[in-house]
Amino acid sequence: MKKLTSAFFLLLIVCLNFVKADAQTKQSVKPNSKKIHQPFVIESSPALQTLLDAAVGETLNGYAPKNLTADNVAATLIDLRDPNNLKMGSYRGEQKIYPASVVKMFYMAAIHQWLEDGKIKTLSPELTRGVKDMIVDSSNEATQYILDVLTDTSSGGELPAREFAAWSYKRNAVNRYFASLGYQNINVNQKTHCEDAYGREQQFRNYKGENRNMLTTDATARLMTKIALGKSVSQERSRQMMDLMKRDFSGTSKDADDQAHGFTAIALNELNLKDAKLWSKAGWTSKSRHDAAYVETPDGLKFVLVVFTENFAEERGIIPSIANKIIKNFKQTR
């Protein structure tokens, strides 16, 4: 009887600790309502929609001999010239697509929210290095570390069902954060890898590639817009995020996948816009080639353009082709 009683109390303690941890985790992902999260409205614009449709359509026609179709491209364009009257156009913008390294922008924003709310106490030198390498160099190893910090989880061997359920709940902290901001149709809970996931990371994908990161160009453009306007977490933290995404596209690069030269920047150089300014986060795999960019031109244009391409990763001209056509015809939208 004593053994049964001891076992009962041990089980009770374990359950209470799990409930306490679960409650702490739930509380830890609630954003500080006093600092952020006011309504953020972006209205659809027929003029921008026409502009974007034409840019994508002309690009599709140009790549028709290579069998590029509408199913291979998604794009979202947002006009930031009037911050109080944001307008957008969207081409398959709600289509869920594997985002490659573009997801790192979401982890950057989450880290700053955790710091702002005190869930992470200090921006240590190591955390600073990790965030910088994740965004500037697009390091997968840095991203793995950052996601561990955000979710208080770690990679390792496969877990029994109950432990895996608790681990999975914690790993979804970033998803819950962005859901609280109204983001829909996205999944941001996976590490990025140079090769493949193993152990509990593969278990989290149900061993079938399921539960992968997924973003839409609409959601990505929304986050980039908030950062560019100083409305992601706080004005100062948005500025710090922008500093990490600032790209110097002057000169040339031997790396065709250089974020500062190999994506939207190609269009700026083609149009000889040497005094333009570019902030971006690119992503690429053997099948994906994406860019999320904020551009300011000398003649007053301010816009976010996010373009995702699938199954044409080696075609480096698709993204700049769309950007080039957008820039040349943007003035006509007013």
Structure commentary:
This protein folds into two domains: about 40-95 and about 215-334, no CATH class; about 100-215, no CATH class. The protein contains twelve helices and seven strands. The protein has helices at about 1-30, 45-60, 105-115, 125-135, 140-150, 160-170, 175-180, 200-205, 215-230, 235-245, 265-270, 320-330, and strands spanning about 45, 75-80, 85-90, 245, 275-285, 290-295, 300-310. Strands 1-3-2-7-6-5-4 form a seven-stranded mixed sheet, with helices on both faces. Helix 2 packs across helix 12 (about 320-330), helix 4 crosses helix 5 (about 140-150) and helix 11 packs across helix 12.
Key features of this structure:
about 325 residues; disordered N terminus
List the helices and strands and how they pair.
Layout: H1 2-28, E1 43-44, H2 46-62, E2 73-79, E3 87-91, H3 104-117, H4 125-136, H5 140-151, H6 161-171, H7 173-180, H8 200-203, H9 217-228, H10 235-245, E4 246-247, H11 264-270, E5 277-284, E6 288-296, E7 302-310, H12 318-329
Parallel strand pairs: 1-3
Antiparallel strand pairs: 2-3, 2-7, 4-5, 5-6, 6-7
Helix pairs in contact: 2-12, 3-5, 4-5, 11-12
